Amino acid sequence: MSPGAFQAGGAPAQREWFTTTHWSVVLKAADTASPAAKEALETLCRNYWYPLYAYVRRQGHGPEDAQDLTQEFFARLLERKDLQRADPGRGKFRSFLVVSLKHFLANEWHRTHTVKRGGQYSMISWDAERVEQRYQREPFHEQTPEKLYDRVWAASLLDQVHQQLRAEYAAAGKGGLFEALQVYLSGETDSSRYADFAAQHEMTEAAVKMAVLRLRRRFSASLRELIAQTVSGQGEVEEEMRDLLSALRS
């Protein structure tokens, strides 16, 4: 998915979620007494485990060690209640995570390979072979671990939003329309193809243009909503959007 795919339509108007979701997922995960903590933690793991895994791999660790270390890192966040020290006023959550991971790797000299990691906490499970195959497909293995982390973080966010929109369209009975239109989320900008698309799908050209515009606007809004969960305000959302674009272009 290209960086330009979600620029159409511009930034959405100010919305209530800017006041209700700032760092919401992080803070819920940190409050281990809250019934919502487990779900919040799973959300964090799902959003960040692969970028962190890629960072560990790029540091020179093998696939199995990288999986163990990533799993253990999330477990340590819980055991030592590190999330409770995550301060929205001191920067972005993804920066907090990668700095915490650096400290963890620097201190992790006496790992064992026979004891199951994670203690009482159940982290997200993954298909080890599939994870490593995904890593091997990363096109920029010469990048620093930090740049690879940022690029994978950006790509992961785009993929999450893409899957969310697929589910939304399917729930509305428009799954087929999404599958047909998703090419326009991949950087397709040739409006001359609208006429061919309209003929193939029994739509007017004006209807195709409107459907593409709505899809791109929804993508942009959904991406900002996802980013807003781990930043402190609208200004930081736009800053993260710029960082995301930069990471994809590097």
Question: How do the helices and strands line up, and which of them pair or pack?
Answer:
Blueprint: H1 17-20, H2 24-30, H3 37-58, H4 63-79, H5 93-107, H6 128-136, H7 145-171, H8 175-181, H9 193-200, H10 205-228, H11 234-249
Helix pairs in contact: 2-3, 3-4, 3-5, 3-7, 7-8, 7-10, 7-11, 9-10
What can you see in these coordinates?
This protein has 250 residues and is mainly α. The protein has one domain (3-249). It contains eleven helices and no strands. It has helices at residues 17-20, 24-30, 37-58, 63-79, 93-107, 128-136, 145-171, 175-181, 193-200, 205-228, 234-249. Helix 2 packs across helix 3 (37-58), helix 7 (145-171) packs across helix 8 (175-181) and helix 7 packs across helix 11. It is globular, with a radius of gyration of 20 Å. It starts with 16 loop residues before the first helix and ends with a helix. 27% of the residues are buried. The model is unreliable at 2-22 and 112-122 (pLDDT under 50).
What assembly state would you assign to the polypeptide chains in this entry?
single chain
Count of runs of 4 or more consecutive helical residues: 11
- Please state the overall shape, judged from the principal axes of the Cα atoms: globular
Q: Determine the strand fraction and express it as a percent band.
A: under 5%
Residue windows where pLDDT falls under 50 for at least 5 positions? 2-22, 112-122
Structural class: mainly alpha
Number of domains: 1
Number of strands: 0
Mean pLDDT over the residues: 75
Helix content: 55-70%
Determine Rg (CA atoms, Å): 20 Å
**Element order: H for helix, E for strand:** HHHHHHHHHHH
State the major sheet.
none
Distance between the termini: 14 Å
